[in-house]
Amino acid sequence: MTKPILKVENLKKYFPVKRGLLGALRGEPPKFVRAVDGVSFEVYKQEVFALVGESGCGKTTTGKLVMKLLEPTDGRIYLEGKDVTDLKTQEEIKAYRRKVQMIFQDPFSSMNPRFRIYDVLEEPLLIHGIGETRAEREELIYKALEMVKIVPPEDYVGRHPHMLSGGQRQRVAIARALILNPTFIVADEPVSMLDVSIRAEILELMKELKEKMGVTYLYITHDLSTARYFADWIAVMYLGRIVEMGPARVVIDNPIHPYTRALLAAVPEPIPERRNIIKELPIKGEVPSAINIPPGCRFHPRCIYMERGLCDVKHPQLVEYEHNHWVECWLAGKI
Amino acid sequence: MAKTVLEVKDLKMYYFTSRGVVRAVDNVSFELKKGEVLGLAGESGCGKSSLGFTLMGMPTPPGKIVGGSVKIDGREIVGLPEDVLRREIRWQKISMIFQGAMNALNPVYTIGYQMIEPLIYHRGMEKEEALDRAMRYLELVGLSPEIVYRYPHELSGGMKQRVVIATALILEPDVVIADEPTTALDVVVQAQIINLMKKLKKELGLSMIFITHDLSILAEISDRVAIMYAGKIIEIGDSQKIYYEPAHPYTQKLLAAIPRLHEDVDKLEFIPGQPPNLIKPPSGCRFHPRCPYAMQVCREQEPELKEIDKDHHAACWLL
Ligand SMILES: Nc1ncnc2c1ncn2[C@@H]1O[C@H](COP(=O)(O)OP(=O)(O)OP(=O)(O)O)[C@@H](O)[C@H]1O
Ligand SMILES: Nc1ncnc2c1ncn2[C@@H]1O[C@H](COP(=O)(O)OP(=O)(O)O)[C@@H](O)[C@H]1O
Ligand code: SF4
Ligand code: SF4
Ligand SMILES: [Mg+2]
Ligand SMILES: [Mg+2]
C-alpha cells in the first residue's frame, strides 16, 4: 500500500468567542466556535480529495490548517510521512509553503490590483529565491502561463488583474500555485464564483494537471456535482466533523448518512419534467451555530430518523461501514 | 388558453457610457402567460438583470429604453411618466426580487417597517392594516408573523430571502421577476426556496420570470425557457424542448458544461473565449467568434429567431 501524501489526525480548531464585559463579570466560562472538531483523513498521490458541506461547516478552516495559515487547537498533520504540525522557524514554514499551495475562491480579491500578471507570478519566485536571473524567472513565468493556456503569454504579462475575465484570472491564480511545482494544492471553492461554461473550463484544466503533472488536491466545495466529476474521494462535513467519507461514486450513489442523503436530495438537476413537483427534503430546519453544537449526534435536531435516548445523548463515532466507506451515525445501515 | 400578462416586443435598452453605447438589451421579444414561469438564462453579463430592470421601467443609469414595447396586462408602459409608473405599475403590476436583495435589507429598521413602507406609500393603507398584511405574507412564505418585529441580522440567509419574496408579492403584482433568488444560498436552503416558489406559483397562480445562470436550477421551476446571449434572446420555447432538443449551438454548449450528479461524464464541454463586449458586439451572429460551426454568412448577417417546432424558436443560420 502506498503512503498518503497528506494525512491529518483528529484535527481541531476552536476559535474563542468574545464574552462581552457582562459575561466576564458574571464569571461565565469562555465560549468557543468549534469550527473543526476532530477531523481525520488521508490524501494519496495524484488523487483529489473533496471536502463537501454547507457554509460554516469548517471546510475553509480545515484548508487553512492544512496550509498552516492557522494553528490547530489539537491534532496532527503529516506531509509525505513527516509530522509538520509544529513547524516553528520561518525557514521550515517557507519550505512547507513551497510544497503546499492554495487556490482561493475569489479570483477578484486574491490578487493585488496594482500588480501586473508578471508581478503576480514573479512574487512567489522571489520569495522562495527561485530563478537566479530575470531571464530564468521570465521563462518559468511563461511556462506556467502556457500550462494554464494563457497564450501567448506575452499578450498577458503586462496586464493588470482587472483586464482579465473571471476565468482567465482564476487560471492565473492556478498558474501562481503551480509555478513552485507544489506537491499538494488546496483549492477552496475555486470555481464557485464562475459561470458554468468557465467553471467547466477550469475543472478540465485542474483535471488535466492532475493527470499530466501528478498534482494532488484537497478540493473544497459545496457543490456535490462538481465533486463527483472531479474528485476521487468525498468527505461530507457537518458542524466541524466528517460524517461520511468514501470513494466519490460510492458516497453519491449509495449515501448512508441522513445528512448526505438530504444534501443529495437538494441538488438541482436539469430535468424539467419534475418542475411541478415539490421536492421532498428529508431534513428539518437550518444549520445551528457552531457555538452551540447540539449534544449527542450533532445532526440530531435536523434528522428525520433521530432516536430519542440514543442520538440526542451519545455521540456516534466515524466507523468503517463497509470497505473504505466511513459513516458517523448510530443507525448506519438500519435506515 | 391562459391569457397573456406580459408582452415584450423589440425592446431595446442601451447604457450610454463615456466609453460608448452598451447594447445590453437589443431587440428582445417574448410573451408571458398567466400562471407561467419563464426561465431566463445566459452567462454573466449577457443582459439578464438589465432586461429585468427594463421591464420594471427602471433601467439603471446611464441606461435608457431606446425602442420597443412592454405591455403588462395589455397596458403599454414604455413612455409612461415616472410618477405614473411609480403610482400605478411598479410593485403593483410588476415587481422584482433583486439580485442580492437579501443582503441589502436595511440593518437599522425592523423587517415589518421595511415591508409596510410600500403599502402605506402606494396603497395609502393605515399602519395597522399594513402590518397585518405583512404578517399574512410572512406566513405565506413560511415564516412566523412575529418576524415583523425582528431586525435583518437576527435572521438566517434563507429567512431573509423569504422576507424579500414576501415583500415582492405584497402588492399582488401580475408579474414577478426573480433575479438569481437562490444563488447565494446553501443547497438545502436553495431547494427549500425553490419549493416555496413552486408552491406560490400553484397557490397564487403567479406569473414569473426566473433569472439565473444555473440551468439546473432553472429546470426545477420553468415552464418555458429563454436563453440570452450578448443582449439578445437566441433561443426560447417549452422547457422540455430546450433541455432535450436544444437547437442553438450556444444552448447545446451551455447544457454540455453542466456536471451531472448521477451520470459519469468523461469530459465537460466548455465554450472557449468569453462573452463579447457589448459596446462593439461582433457582426452577424454575435456568437460567431466562439461557435464551432461558424460559416461565412454567420459573420455577415444576423440570424432572426425562427420557429423550428411548436413553441420553440432559435436564431441560427444552421436551422
Ligand atoms: N449601469 C450600467 N452602466 C453601464 N453598463 C452596464 C450597467 N449595468 C450593466 N451594464 C453592462 O450591461 C451588460 C449586461 O449586464 P447585466 O447586469 O444585465 O448582466 P447579467 O446577465 O444580469 O449578468 P450576471 O449574471 O453577472 O448578473 C454588461 O456588459 C454590463 O457590464
Ligand atoms: N477567524 C475566525 N474566528 C472565529 N470564528 C471563525 C473564524 N473562521 C471561521 N470561523 C467560524 O468557524 C466555522 C467554520 O467556518 P469555515 O471554515 O469558514 O466554514 P466553510 O468554509 O465550510 O464555510 C463557522 O462557524 C465560522 O463562522
Ligand atoms: S446518529 Fe441518529 S440523529 Fe445522528 S444522523 Fe444518525 S440517526 Fe440521525
Ligand atoms: S448563426 Fe452561425 S455562428 Fe451563429 S450559432 Fe449559428 S452556426 Fe454558430
Ligand atoms: Mg469556505
Ligand atoms: Mg444579473
TrEMBL record, chain A:
The top of its lineage is: Archaea, Methanobacteriati, Methanobacteriota, Thermococci, Thermococcales
Q: Which PANTHER family match?
A: ABC TRANSPORTER, ATP-BINDING PROTEIN, TRANSPORT ATP-BINDING PROTEIN
What NCBIfam families does the record tag this protein with?
Answer: oligo_HPY
Quote the PROSITE patterns the UniProt record gives.
ABC_TRANSPORTER_1 (PS00211), ABC_TRANSPORTER_2 (PS50893)
Q: One MF term from GO for this chain?
A: ATP binding
Please state what the protein is called.
ABC transporter ATP-binding protein
Q: Which CDD domains match?
A: ABC_NikE_OppD_transporters (cd03257)
Under Pfam families, the record lists: ABC_tran, oligo_HPY
Q: Does the keyword Cell inner membrane apply?
A: no
Q: SMART domains, per this entry?
A: AAA
ABC transporter domain: residues covered: 6-264
UniProtKB/TrEMBL annotation, chain B:
Name of this chain's protein: ABC transporter ATP-binding protein
Under SMART domains, the record lists: AAA
Residue ranges constituting the ABC transporter domain according to the UniProt record: 6-255
> Which Pfam family name is an example for this entry?
oligo_HPY
GO MF terms listed in the record are:
ATP binding; ATP hydrolysis activity
InterPro entries, per database record: AAA+_ATPase, ABC_transporter-like_ATP-bd, ABC_transporter-like_CS, Oligopep_ABC_C, P-loop_NTPase
| One GO-annotated biological process of the protein | peptide transport
Q: Recite the UniProt keywords alphabetically.
A: ATP-binding, Nucleotide-binding, Transport
* Organism field: Thermococcus paralvinellae
